[in-house]
Structures are given as C-alpha cells and as structure tokens.
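Changelog note: in this version the structure field was regenerated for every chain. One regenerated record is shown below for reference.
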Amino acid sequence: VILCPTNTIWGLSCDAYNKSAVDRIFQIKERDLTKKLIILVNSIEQLKECVESIHPRIETLLEFCNRPLTVIYPASPNLPAYLNTEINTVGIRVTKNQLLIDIIENLGHPLVSTSANKQGVPFPKNFNEIAPAIIKDVDYTCYAQRNIKNAGRPSLIIRYNEEGELIFLR
C-alpha cells in the first residue's frame, strides 16, 4: 500500500489484483467494505482492456475533459469480482499523474485508489493534513512529492445509461 499524490487529492493505492493489499486499504481507512475503491488505469487503451465496452461519448469526454473524471461502468469479467459494487459496477479513472502512470506501467495492470483519510474524516488537501496513523500504516510514502499541492477536490463522477445519456453523479 502506497501513500502518494494523485491528480486530485492525496491517496492510498495498491495493486488492484492483490486482494490482501486491497483489504489492507479498507483496514487502514476503517472503511465500510460496501464502499468500494476506484480503479486507476494509465491510458484509454488500458481502460479498454478492463471493461467490455466504452460508449463513444465517454471516450470523447475522457480525451478532452481537463478535470479528473471517474466513470462508472458495468462490472466486467476482466477485473477481480471483489472490486465490484453491490450493484455490479466499477468506478475507473484514467490518471494523468505521471508517478501513477509509471507505477501502473511497471506493474502491468491497474491500481485501486481512495483518499488518504479515515472513513468519516475530511480528505486531506495536502500532505500536512494526512493523519500520522495513515502514514504509519502504509508500506511506502512518496515523501519526495510531499510539497505537491493538489487541486484539493475529488474527481467528477459520471455514468451513462442504455440510451447513452450521461448522468453526472458528482
């Protein structure tokens, strides 16, 4: 489990295919298991490997949207079932953070990610707001990037229905 800045806020991330690491993130955050984590991919091409299909409107939005964008997709057999929500969906974001892109590239598959805070506590806008207990519990902290000031707000979240209509959730 690593603690690092994302292109939104400071987050906890790990290998999406390592269930014990994913479980540790839930323990570190004291998070309800029904509140799933988002999946980070390094490119639209990798996203296409994770989901069964991408609506053309979504692909266009991913290419041109300047703000970080998490898209809710139907669950896919290409991803571990433990990443699915209770209603068989997954949230996936194409990251623009170069450190995470490099980690995903070297790992060869996606990461999961969530804000670096305990459940019910506001998310940290910068490194200095991260609780010492979170820092202590992770395997690696990206101290070299601790002065990075993130946008301090989470990503947009959207989904689409069968008619191809976009629904903005956040």
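Spot check on this record: Strands lie at 2-5, 10-15, 38-41, 69-74, 89-94, 111-115, 140-141, 156-160, 166-168. The first strand starts at residue 2 and ends at 5.
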